[in-house]
Amino acid sequence: MRLRFLLALCLISMFCLSKAQQTEKIYLSGTGNDQTVNWDFFVTGGMNANKWSTIPVPSNWELQGFGKYNYGFDKDSLRGKEIGFYKHKFTVPSDWKSKKINIVFEGSMTDTEVKINGKLAGSIHEGSFYVFKYDISKLLKSGENLLEVKVAKHSANQSVNEAERKADYWIFGGIYRPVYLEALPKAHIERVQINAQADGLLEVNLLATNGADKVGIQLYDANGNAFGEKIETAIKKQIRLQREFVNPKLWSTEFPNLYTAKFTLYKGDQPLHEISKKVGFRTVEVKERDGVYINGVKMKFKGVNRHSFYPKSGRTTSKAISIADVKLMKEMNMNAVRMAHYPPDGHFLDVCDSLGLFVMDELAGWHGNYNTKTGTKLLAEMMENDENHPSIVFWANGNEGGHNRELDHLFAEQDIQKRPLIHPWEVFGGFETTHYRDYNYGIGNYDHGHNILMPTEFLHGMWDGGHGAGLEDYWKAMWSNPLSAGGFLWDFADQGVVRTDKNGMIDTQGNLGPDGIVGPYHEKEGSFYTIKEVWSPIFFEHREIANGFDGSFSIENRYAFTNINQCTFTWTLASFNSTDRVETSGKITAPNIKPFEKGVLKVDLPENFKTYDVLNIMAKSPNGETIFTWSFSIKRPNEVIGNELVKNLKSKLDFKNNTSNYLISANGIEVAIDKTTGLLQKVKNAKGVIPFSNGPILQEGVNNFKNFTHKMDGDTLIISSTFDRKENFNTLQWKIYPSGIVKMQVNYFPAAYFTTFVGMNFSYPETEIKGIEYRGKGPNRVWKNRMKGNEYGIWKKDFNSTATGEAPYIYPEFKGYYSNLYWCEFIGKNNNFKVYTDQEDVFLRLFTPKKSKDTTWDNMNPTFPDGDISFMNGISAIGTKTQKPETTGPMGMKHVFYDFEKEPARALTMSLYFDFSGEK
């Protein structure tokens, strides 16, 4: 028995000796805003100052009720001099005595002094967004140790303040990213730099301490199977090796194939230290006066700018937030993200690697920059922490003038992959990245220029402007221009922070923070869906379902690496009747269409498909994500309205004519129409008065309806104005049927050749509305230059007064324009009524959206028609923070109509049917 025990003990010892040591970690803090550890804390200024308490780490102290909230332009912020003091006790395992022990800070704002057991761990770290560490092996003692950290919100280094603190974003303080201890064996790998090329060539720079004589490298695929042969090579302190792998699966945003590379240090056959790195085989190449090529394919970057931010925790995020952000970007069919304006959390880059998103990683700098000494140190920290991520395809040196040009050469010298360097907002390195240029500037300058065109910020999305508004025009120009490499929208999410000093209100610093496609908590705004359609990698050419339709759709493959036959398609036919939605569906055979080629998608529909109202086609990517659902109307409004609406009942129409009004009663409905102007004056049904009146008022047009006459056409009353080419060229006709249905038809000419909007208004008090139910495209409102992203359907919406980008962030908004109206039921507090149309392309306008507060720019607050409810032939566009609507492209320009004085005169028409019965 004793012999057996000794044998087992020897086997265990041999096994332990033969296994390489891993880098060990012990977190002193939590890992993110969803898992924190309380430390002792004291702050010198602002809320809860000058008293010891506790604070969660990681966190920004403002979000925990300490200090003072500051935005980057706050002049008081640099005078505040807030300093936070942290204390935390910890122990280390007894078996760490022979190891090298580092304390690692993933991010601290801003100047950070670290002491262990009362002794400095090293020099004060200056800079907020970088991973830094200290070797504290000699400072530790057995048993309990004391960590003390002093954090100054603003830096003693003025260049750090210029680069980070004087910027257009929230300025926070505190240890906001995780803190941990790492233990390494005496002989260990210090750094690995990886360059895995699309042709299978793997380059590695490896730096190790003394004590080992060889290193082994083995790649494993996603299933854990060894890929290629194990590489072993003799080692000194630093090695550089190259090996070729046959037919690796390449990394791209469409197919983010990753391998795991295990690096093992040996002394003879004894493994000493092992680390693992994710590897993506891919190549980034810039061809001068041509474009950016990934794996040999010319790219169009569909990108967005993204801050590391969450409303309740400031710059402290979590891996769950990173996953949610990347998934939302990919849901919008984006393929790229720019880090604004500093390096992100490491887990965000991990997620971009694993889910597939191109990254532009940025050394901090807004309009100011680090001095050369400081920037050199921080650039090295960024490079060491981020360099091996295959998702990173660009480096950026600062933003909008915040470029220290003395640092440029360091990017290429320190990056084994030699990725291109960008100066956002500049013409630099063969790239034209100018921000927020007008569409016509882009067409004129871009079409006759020589640089690769890639605006690192465009279509500034303040409130509801920009983003989707204007994107279709810009993208058409970008897609067709060989020199265009796409661009990056500003920006992903509203920068709204929870104010612990203001009862939890969400503060966007007035107009400086509400620039997102999604709200602070990722609420989807209307532009989200427009971007999703415009940036779809499958493009549908315009197609209408009419006589001769055979189920064929011309499509274009705008993927870079995916054949359309790798996607899946389904069709759905839907009918909307008075009680329910009836559907049938089927699968579509995906055609063989290579990237950047065109072809036909053939949908085999049942013979009775014309009995349905709408055809929807859904496409899914190879990994099952919904690309988009395209919606095609089968029945037009005049087919839907039918004869039932105006059918004659046995009830008799009663008509009276006093000095001022036509008074009509039919089937329990009473209507009053002004005899002189022809405007609707009053409506009443069995439930009482419907407060809908004072229309139609033309806009932009003139109400010159005159000389009204009336007559009976069978049992239908017709009230009509008289046409005169000079005096009363706009005409109005009312038809009142015995059923109580009232038809209005207006033939009119706009007041000018160029018009912002055209249509007609009615009065309906906003205080009386509860909601609407309508058939048309929805559920989101539209602008003239943001028409895409909706589907045909029946939509029910409760009233809200949401102003985009302001609390309470209820989306979709209620007020605004809606497209492709068939009918709408207005649900009032006391009475309901319905409006139908028998013509195509009618817009419904619901009230006037609240003007966003705190603005000196009216580009995002477009002019709306007068009145409350409008039925429009043309609607207004919306601009951006820096651009008026007409400078965002043709769709943002005013409407152009024919001059009615020329032959033949062409009038616009509006035909509406009103059902005032109040019945469903």
TrEMBL record:
- Where do the Glycosyl hydrolases family 2 sugar binding domain residues begin and end? 52-185
GO CC, alphabetical: beta-galactosidase complex
| Requisite cofactors | Ca(2+)
| Reaction(s) this enzyme catalyzes, per UniProt | Hydrolysis of terminal non-reducing beta-D-galactose residues in beta-D-galactosides
Q: Which organism is it from?
A: Pedobacter cryotolerans
Entry EC number(s): 3.2.1.23
The UniProt entry's sequence similarity note says: Belongs to the glycosyl hydrolase 2 family.
Q: Which residues form the Beta galactosidase small chain/ domain?
A: 720-830
UniProt-recorded name of the protein: beta-galactosidase
**Which GO biological process categories is it annotated with?**
lactose catabolic process
MF GO annotations: beta-galactosidase activity; carbohydrate binding
Q: Where is the Glycoside hydrolase family 2 immunoglobulin-like beta-sandwich domain?
A: 187-282
The subunit field of the Swiss-Prot or TrEMBL record says:
Monomer.
* Cleavable signal peptide: 1-20
Which sequence ranges are marked TM in the entry?
Answer: none
